[in-house]
Amino acid sequence: MNETKSYDRGYFTSLRRFYTPYGESRPQVIVLSEKTVSRRGYVKYAGAGIVIVAGAAAGAYYATRPPPTPAETTTMATATGPKEWSDFYKEAAAPYKGTKLQVISVSGQRLEDTLISSGQEFEKLTGISVEVTPLSWDAGHEKVVSDYVAKAGAYDGATIDGWVMANFTQSGYLVPQDQFWNNSALRDPNFNFDDLVPSIVDLNCTWQNEWWGLPYIGDVSVLFYRKDLFDKYDMKPPETWDEYTQTAKFFAKDVFEQEHVYGSAEQLKMGIDCPTSWVYRYGGPFDQYHPVVNNKYGKQAFQWTKDVLPYSAPATLEYDSMESGDAFLRGDVAMNPNWGFLAGKAVDPTMSKIQDKWFVAPVPKGLEKRTPFLGGWVLGILPYSKRKEAAFLFFEYHSTQQNQKRVVLDPSLGSVPTRTSVLSDPDVVAKFPYYPAYVESLLTSVARPSVPEFLEMWDVLSIAFSDYLTNAKGLDEATDWCQAKWEELLA
Amino acid sequence: MHIPFFSSKRLLRYALIAPALIWVIVFMIFPLIYSLNLSFQTWQPPEPPIYVGLKNYIEMLSDERFGNALQNTSIFTIGTVATEMAIGLLVALSISRLKPRIAEKVNVVSVIPIVMTPVITGILWRMIMHGDYGILNYYLSMLGLGRYSWLSDPKLTLFSNMIVDIWHWTPFVALAFTAGISAIPREPLEAAQLDGASYWQTFKNIMLPYLRTILMLVLLLRVVEAILFFDINFILTKGGPGVRSEMVSLYVYKNAFWFWNLGYSSALSYIVLIIADIIGMALFFIVIGRKKK
Amino acid sequence: MKTNVFHYVVIVLYVVAIVFPLYWLVSTSFKTHLQTFAIPPVWIFTPTLKNYEEVFVLRDFNPYLLNSVIAATISSLIAALVASLAAYSFSRYEIRQSDNLLYFLLSTKMLPPVAVVIPMFVFMSTLRFTNNVLALVILYVAMNLPFAVWMMKGFFDAMPKEPEEAAQIDGCSFIKTFMKIVLPQVIGGIFATFIFIYIYAWNELVFALVLTYTNVSQTIPVWATGGLTTYRGIMWGESGVVGTITIMPVLIFAFLVRKHLIRGLTFGVVKG
Q1: Which CATH number is associated with domain A220-374+451-490?
Q2: Residues of chain A numbered 171-190 and touching chain B (CB < 8 Å)
Q3: Are C11 and C89 found together in one domain?
Q4: Nearest to B117 among C14, C118, C202 (CB)
Q5: pTM for the structure as a whole
Q6: Is residue A484 over pLDDT 80?
Q7: Which end of chain C, N or C, is less surrounded by CB atoms within 10 Å?
């Protein structure tokens, strides 16, 4: 039996007691559960537990680490017969075979599908796999910068909106690509630079004469309209914004009973999209480096947008560019000024109810002229990536003439090519008859302000615009407030 | 029981709490100190950080967007907490009338909104409140109450956020009050009934005193939670049209990770922290006091 | 007090208001694309698994699911363990300033996660430790520990001390008393705490949003913020699927610990 021991036995003394060899009786323990585990048993369990947890942790860690690039080289296949355009890529990519690229793609508007599709073709060709992460506009750009700040190297490349190129290139979030072009191992001899639409290249891809990105999409604002309805009522697409309002009124008021179609839908959601509606109404000389919002052009643009609101789709203030396009494709509205890429969606029967009923015209004139907004996306390479060369090859591949043509003609994708040759290719024009007019718009377009503070300025503008459209601020109040903020930012 | 200070027994008890304390200090408290440090700098990548003293805090005073966020958060907090307390209490009173087995089932159902991932709640309600296709508008229009742009009408977005938060947390309030009500001893209630007291009198004079603790506790938890509201805000409206539904946490986030003003956003987050802490701890001490449980 | 119609109406409205959105979410996951936003809404339809197929096969949902599971499980195990030890000590032994320490732990619950995430981001970047599930695990443990400690302390406080004291008198070591006497009694409480913090970790958004990049480490809530809007607009059907899958484990867990739910959510003050 036990002797009564005092409380004050320390922890270690009782341990010592436990280990005392023969002779001493074991303490009687009040056992409330029947399981008894010996001391050694505890050690075993604890050890096993630690091993399991550590193993799981290590496993998770190794599973989540980016795979090292293999150093193996495959023997180059000797070409028999005439060289295919894609052979270059097969050979050039050989040293990088087996790498996995992580690319951010802006989601929505089908953009990511083209990149995913090119990625699949590229993988078949070269063995380099491409993982495309679709992210929203905000999140995508946030992650590019975040990758830079955190030196994470999580992504290799990203689609960058041309809007932020000025900012991103200056800040070092992207890698200049001349180094790749000058590397003969990476440069496709058949890559035709002159073929790329010049205004797109100027605006998006080069910055102070350096290459920063391959043109992924070059797009311009055009006016989509319901040709069938216009023909029925013997109307022509509006030439000026006043006419636009009148046309919208016609559909929303006069013939609404018969057609059940609202006048227009626009991208007026507060955010990066709604200033677009302002720009294409601007109609005057637009200073790229020091834009002004409270001059007569800017104010008129505000005014015009508000004028057409009563005749627009009820939820137009909630639409971003994608949703306004969707409204048009559902047949809810008669007109939709939008980015040209919408055409790809419009011919797809699963996406569009108005397949053959639409056509495209240039955006109406503002006070002085037409100012369609030039936009575009660029494929950029991130500085902390460990697989820059492979990423470059992929982007180059994506931008070749053959690939662009394939992507544009593919019925399940939809894209806007950045090469004049593709834009005027007979097969493509057969699918998109409006392309020649589209090219013309491209050439007369207005570029967004090329200032690094662009994003913040546009944010301010969208707030002012939103406030004005929802009657929270008056016209002068909104524009003056916006301009004041812009001056602050640009100072 | 007098134990010498450095005995092994004492070592044990401190060794047991050490890992937890150290972990929390390293990963929750050190960041705050670092954040305080950051708040005295200006850091906008890719530029290097520079010390600017109190500039960020002074700038904050004239930041009208921050003022707007504070205002939105205040309206939101007061609105949601008041509504949740009222509805929750009402529901709890009703639940307390039910037979125990049914009450149990209702309590189980109450659990659902509380534990649903806030992100999913946000997505769900964004679908429900969609201007064109949302069923909320559909039913409202069927009842003749008209359609609304819940998520893009600047007058309504804050309210929409509130509705979702109320849906999210009222069950919690209801559950807490149910538990509290069931803890009220029977005698006073029965006595009051015998005396013929009206419902309102019983409630005010007998039930409320017992519920006081729970009420204050729930108030505390809800208020602090409402001030820190982020997840649903981010998904539902991301700040709404303009900045109509932007709350403080969202504004801090945008400042940090969209505009990359790392120094300024640290200062902002500190102020939010202080506000939440002051209100939280004040309420906490009123409720629980410093007695050991 | 008698129950009258008014009370029943309140209850019915309440239950419907809760259950209906959930039902809608789950049913949307089984609808075809056109049915999801049909007006008037479709009530009777033949369910289709197309959305599930789309999410799991085409949209590459699995890595995110895996990440969520890893982050939540590992962090909850560690936190439950560490918290149990600490809570036991707080409960049974005299510790200097224990009240202050406990309230200190509690005050971390009032922290806006945004406040912590900014310095954490900088810190993790310097260590090149971003885009890693383990970073999330570590942070989730830290995030959940205060709550877990309070909850476990509540359970320990509720246990009678006598068996342990008796064992101590008989000279049992700490480990032995803990394993043989304490653990079997409190295992239910540990399980409940584990479930609770699992739910918190599973639902967490801010840390994951900022500190992770690709599907290598992103969790479901992060993916849900962006991955559900594609060229088709908000993907309603897929949102339904993701929503259903995400909340299923959480709902099941919550159901398991429903008895402890109120106690947990109110830091042990309200014993439901």
Answers
A1: 3.40.190.10
A2: 171-173
A3: no
A4: C202
A5: 0.80
A6: yes
A7: N
